[in-house]
Amino acid sequence: VTNPAFSIPEMATVWSPESQARRMLEFEAALARAEARAGVIPSDAADEIGMVCREDWNDAVEILYSAAAEAGTPAIPLVEMLTERVKEPARGFVHWGATSQDTMDTALALQIQDGLDLLLRGLFAVGTELASLASGHRRTLMPGRTLLQQALPITFGLKAARWLALVSRQMIRLGEVRSRSACVQLGGAAGTLAALGTAGVTVTQYLAEELGLAAPLLPWHTERDRIAEVAAALGVVAGAMGKIAGDVVLLAQTEVGEVVEDGDESGRGRSSALPQKRNPIDAVMASAASRLAIGAVPVLLGSMLQEHERAAGAWQAEWEALPDLFRFTMSAVGHVKSCLAGLRVEAARMLANLDAYGGLLMAESLTIALAEHIGRYQAYLLVRQATGKARASGRDLRSIARADTAVTAVLSEEALERALDPTAYLGSTDTYIDRALAEFSRQEPPRGEQQTQDGGQVDG
Amino acid sequence: VTNPAFSIPEMATVWSPESQARRMLEFEAALARAEARAGVIPSDAADEIGMVCREDWNDAVEILYSAAAEAGTPAIPLVEMLTERVKEPARGFVHWGATSQDTMDTALALQIQDGLDLLLRGLFAVGTELASLASGHRRTLMPGRTLLQQALPITFGLKAARWLALVSRQMIRLGEVRSRSACVQLGGAAGTLAALGTAGVTVTQYLAEELGLAAPLLPWHTERDRIAEVAAALGVVAGAMGKIAGDVVLLAQTEVGEVVEDGDESGRGRSSALPQKRNPIDAVMASAASRLAIGAVPVLLGSMLQEHERAAGAWQAEWEALPDLFRFTMSAVGHVKSCLAGLRVEAARMLANLDAYGGLLMAESLTIALAEHIGRYQAYLLVRQATGKARASGRDLRSIARADTAVTAVLSEEALERALDPTAYLGSTDTYIDRALAEFSRQEPPRGEQQTQDGGQVDG
Amino acid sequence: VTNPAFSIPEMATVWSPESQARRMLEFEAALARAEARAGVIPSDAADEIGMVCREDWNDAVEILYSAAAEAGTPAIPLVEMLTERVKEPARGFVHWGATSQDTMDTALALQIQDGLDLLLRGLFAVGTELASLASGHRRTLMPGRTLLQQALPITFGLKAARWLALVSRQMIRLGEVRSRSACVQLGGAAGTLAALGTAGVTVTQYLAEELGLAAPLLPWHTERDRIAEVAAALGVVAGAMGKIAGDVVLLAQTEVGEVVEDGDESGRGRSSALPQKRNPIDAVMASAASRLAIGAVPVLLGSMLQEHERAAGAWQAEWEALPDLFRFTMSAVGHVKSCLAGLRVEAARMLANLDAYGGLLMAESLTIALAEHIGRYQAYLLVRQATGKARASGRDLRSIARADTAVTAVLSEEALERALDPTAYLGSTDTYIDRALAEFSRQEPPRGEQQTQDGGQVDG
Amino acid sequence: VTNPAFSIPEMATVWSPESQARRMLEFEAALARAEARAGVIPSDAADEIGMVCREDWNDAVEILYSAAAEAGTPAIPLVEMLTERVKEPARGFVHWGATSQDTMDTALALQIQDGLDLLLRGLFAVGTELASLASGHRRTLMPGRTLLQQALPITFGLKAARWLALVSRQMIRLGEVRSRSACVQLGGAAGTLAALGTAGVTVTQYLAEELGLAAPLLPWHTERDRIAEVAAALGVVAGAMGKIAGDVVLLAQTEVGEVVEDGDESGRGRSSALPQKRNPIDAVMASAASRLAIGAVPVLLGSMLQEHERAAGAWQAEWEALPDLFRFTMSAVGHVKSCLAGLRVEAARMLANLDAYGGLLMAESLTIALAEHIGRYQAYLLVRQATGKARASGRDLRSIARADTAVTAVLSEEALERALDPTAYLGSTDTYIDRALAEFSRQEPPRGEQQTQDGGQVDG
């Protein structure tokens, strides 16, 4: 039994021992084929190896990972088991010229692609929810808050648009990282491909073609910037999810009450002891997952300090840290998606909060209106005085302003009303929402589920 | 299938959902008993609740953790299921006055005790190996190295003694942390124990007695310094393991060759492709586990920033980060233990390395010997000149010194030999080894396996 | 010009190059004295060395730190400069038998004591403010909040008491860490004190006495658990400050309004553009400093992985990370102190917030009151129904309950009122506050400023 | 006095309060000009504001940063001081429509450009050294090492080429990050630019043009992915430097001796006490700086979790963490550059190390040679037997092989010699070196020093 709170099954599958074993076998099959194409090994041997690789290995996985603890890597027992299963004369050509890290790193590249595809699909779903919120609440007034103090009116649509733009940028970034990290590893025991003589570069190219990956300029056994870049990008995605989740938690506070997570009243987030509560469970779990994901990033950055041609500790730390990072990031994305999908926006409460403090957050607007007539500095002094009076007396800014002859001398009642009307003081809000929607509409919908599951198939 | 490379089964068990569920049920049973003792609930109700808590719940765990994802915590569905199973009239007294975090945090305190006991047992085993190495190699000369450059002679026994002292200090620290973190959580929904009227403090005291834990002065739902202190202490243990493992990796280098991890030739660490290799697998995995453990610490420190009376994200992040930290730290301890248990110390190679560079690392000793006669500064200049000559000519320091009349004028041949004898230049090495052994001998052997497994029994 | 936002001058001074140089000179003077006492060097030489160490070195500091970049450590040029300044025949006895890391680490131990004293003084000041808030607001009702949802009534005094208990525990912890980290380093170039012959242990003991520090069992050049423990403890302190600061930020929200940071209206936290705002600047900066401090901890834990007898990178990273950690932690403590000292508690607003949601957070209290008569489960169902009605109708729980014959059948009007009275539903609040106050009163007031500044004097 | 060990003066300057103040003034001047162009403020006002911004402000910086501690940001006092200095009627148009975070974030974008330019210049210098080493040592044989065990022959040129490819990729990455992070911030108090009416987007565009930055689609006050991406990229650069530095430290070990850092015998890295030592100071300091830089990354990722429209703590933490990250990363780059520039490659020692273990690391080559004749599996068994004999007897692989009739039956003496010749077993080494050199040659040389210093000039 595994705690499912931080685990999305599809992502757990990508990083399961079974998937890793399958990906390693795909590498071995593709390597044999590539070497056959390059004339390094007989074509019959490649066929035989490929056939055995495509057999059902699920029963072997447990044995394999037990042996891995002894061998220091699962690739070593996997190659041994594969060698045993392949018949002579093909047997001698298994894993020809490769090292165990070639097997594991190329499998890793394939798993990373799968993981990034799942994340991209999750982010697209998040973006879809946000686009709906951004356009649907384009005009839903609410207080903008700086340092958690009410500042100026905004709309909930603008807030959603900012979240959306953040998500679109993450999709763009992950797309870039995906193409950069999608490269095979093939270097042999010390990164020279010595056992392949002069055919090393050609075999690498063919191998990449077989697997639908890129061929790197050089082997990268201990130059882990590609892995670190993936890690960093996921950390940023996790941070983005944490930002959105954190805002939802704050908006859902009893005293703010501007959103309720469980809009469909399904019962999620109810407390058995305290029936009045409506906890924003998904936002809370997304926030937790975000922190956990970010925690894995420095481990992977620190793991760039790898010794010589194969690291003694730093590489091995990647084996846990990177899957964890994918799992936690996916969990954050998934919880944000659920949170947004069921979000009920309490527009009336937003408006009430906006009005609750005597119109003080229209002070800047009033200043601007006055400034046209008496200069900005005089206007600022006048409004500061008025807000001081409002605060001291508990009266609202409107009544203070109406009673102030210095104000009424230059602003007609109509002009004053306009200056105190939040809907007239939204600046570029509409444009920003349009831009965020347009940018998201340029993001490609993610590939179908089936394709991702089968991404990087050995044989098509 | 789980990758066992970073997982010690006993520690995995401590943090399994099954164990957590069992510990939560122990809390519920003990709470009922404590409340009965305090006259808050009927004694019969406590008996009935205790009986149901001691039933076999294993089948329920999967359902429970699925429900947890909805509820936001496994304690909520557990209390619901328990309530259903308990018969009336006891049913109404289940979880009386408590909140779900009381259940989870007290279970956590029990799990932490179990985890710390396993770590203490592991550290004792490591210490036992080190004590043997320290006394057995008290006089095994080797080069001391600073910034990875040979500096002065030391003995391998001294190195092992330093590691041992490090381990003893960790045992002392974990013992302190154990007593400090072993405290119940009981505060009710907002930390006032309001539902218990005036009996809150008494019930807390009885609850602590029932569970063999301490009663805290106040509930600590969002004051997580105890958890953070546990995390920090484990981070230091992990760092200690990383230090030892790192030194082993360096000593096992081909060009150094002073230790071989697999002294019993069991085949561990052999490379199938490169038969000449003897990889220090356990040291490598310990180093990786150490990094992973340390990576969890800042997540738990950052999780101290918890909101009001229950956190929205930070507490939930603990649920993954703390078990991971225990697992990785235990893995590091376990791998260091295996590494040391099979370590072959190549004393001849150590001596050869000491002698390989022309006796240059006896330069300080020669300086001291000369200084008694000609002052330290003159001695320093003389020896610097001699080492320069040695380096330039490729001759050893002994022959240079013998041919230097400024040296022979004050040092007899016997005195010169003594000055160049590493065994005569070990300073306080013996005393240090004795002290490290004595300090470790003061550490209590860990409690038996059975006790740890059953620690914090529900009924005694 | 340095940005003072995250810097408390006293703490900056402790970690300045000037202070480090002074502390290193104290080590050199004390070492000479200890060696003279042990008969290792002439007493006259120790006097001469001590005299030069006590001269004014401030002019030399800049040169010294420029040279440090070349030498890899400031201790090497310092010893060279000291050697030049000391007259013959004492010159040859400068730094006798020691290595540069002995000088730096012992200076570090002294700086750590100074830093911990400043932190303890800061925490005592924070605790003093909190004790005042805890006792002064013992009965100031406010909503307790879990997952940022109103849950049950608490008092602001209880919240302050929980913060206070957190602070007291940190004082206790820092006191322990202080005694453990206050130990000299003396091992010579490879940790054997070979140059001191058999006198090593005696000299170490005398050195410790001279400096008012402890003598360690063994040198600890690359066993850095003491430093890591200091780091971890500071990380926990920083987390504690972040907890308090975070709560203040949340309480100061416009919609919550339960505290105002700048109670004395000094103008701090005002926004020039938005005159209505009252930003909780100190809480915000404390929160920032807390994050920065915690960020330094994993660097120092990771720096435990030190090679052989002197590390090539990990030790050097401590030189920046540890001072930063002290500076940021002190900044967090200082900002929390300022925040609390000027905090205005808006008791009326707290009460209003408590009442604002129809008395729903008295639901548990009503359940308990009913349970005595009709059993807990029936009571729970009844109250859940009532809160549902209250929520749906917008009416308050009181009026719903009064109109419910199932309630009035068992509860008199008086009993109902009592069940809905928050002041009657505070459980152990008073006891908890008393305990927190009592525990803090057991904390020793910090030593006077002068003593801290002069802590570890070279000559007494 | 500041410890210069981790500080490159040019980078320190970029992040000094003086530079920040200057950049903020550039923003204010450019904003005024942009607003004048858009017809929002009078052109004369923009001229006056620009003139004052270009005055000498250095004397004001200290006052400004003292005031910043009170105000919570240096932008607030700066705008106040600027407003005072600007004459009426322009005074009222200072900072028109902007918020203090607009000022600070745009200044930050400019500082980031400067910082990235310095890093790019540093990386280019590192790459230039590496290109020279890669081509100069193309054929310098050395042992390749996996898990710090000798594995197969490589050349030092290949190792340098791998480092070089790593550096080239970082230059490409930083270039991308530079273009993405180079965008202005302009949103006004709550991100709507309400005070600019409908002109917000136009003013933003003009502002971007004035400053040579991009205009973002939306304000990004609390969507900090751009900053986090910069941080992550620097963390990867730091990791890359740590990789190179770590390898140098390992190669410089006494027992390996394949490189000496201070090739020009300038005296750097000498130990005064131990004249035989040659410490790789620059590599050590680069390693330390790398760790410190990586430590700042999670702080900045964690700081993405910002509240609503302006963060209460997370944004403020950036103010220290990002400059620290730039400083430490630059320090790592600078130390690696110095280390490589003075590196002496001990080719003879490399060859000696390669030969020192009886030719065992030619085992794979021999296997390949035999496999052509007897199949890979038979070959593997034969060679494993031979290496076992070699290890047991202390004889070298060549003599064992020559005496083995199973070998001599299929390999002529010439063929055997070829199989044991490391120069004939380098695989794709040459191609890899060529590729790394070619890729680096495609990197643009960094812009001149003057341009970087003046990058983003206010007036052209």
The H/E string of chain A reads HHHHHHEEHHHEHHEHHHHHHHH
Please compute the radius of gyration of chain A using only Cα atoms.
29 Å
Outline the low-pLDDT stretches of chain A. Answer: 449-460
Largest pleated sheet of chain A: 2 strands, antiparallel
Q: Could you give the count of β-strands of chain A?
A: 4
Number of helices of chain A: 19
Biggest β-sheet: strands ordered side by side in the sheet of chain A: 1-2
**Overall pLDDT metric of chain A:** 92
Q: Which chains have the largest interface?
A: A-D, 102 and 102 residues
Overall body shape of chain A: elongated
Query: Which assembly state applies to the chains in this document?
Result: homotetramer
Structural class, judged by helices and strands of chain A?
A: mainly alpha
What fraction of the residues of chain A are assigned to beta strands by DSSP? under 5%
Helix content of chain A: 55-70%
Gap between N and C termini of chain A: 36 Å
Structure characteristics:
homotetramer, mainly alpha, 460 residues, 4% strand, two-stranded antiparallel sheet, 4 strands, 63% helix, two-stranded antiparallel ribbon, 19 helices
Describe this structure in words.
Four copies of one chain form a homotetramer. Chain A is mainly alpha-helical and 460 residues long. Helices cover 63% and strands 4% of the residues of chain A. In chain A, the strands form two sheets. In chain A, strands 1-2 form a two-stranded antiparallel ribbon. Chain A has a two-stranded antiparallel sheet with strand order 3-4. In chain A, helix 2 crosses helix 8 (200-211), helix 6 (100-136) runs antiparallel to helix 7 and helix 7 packs antiparallel against helix 9. The two termini of chain A are 36 Å apart. Chains in contact: A-B, A-C, A-D, B-C, B-D, C-D. The A-C interface holds A 143, 145-152, 249-250, 252-256, 271, 273-280, 284, 298, 302, 353, 356-357, 360-361, 363-364, 383-384, 387-388, 391 and C 143, 145-152, 249-250, 252-256, 271, 273-280, 284, 298, 302, 353, 356-357, 360-361, 363-364, 383-384, 387-388, 391.
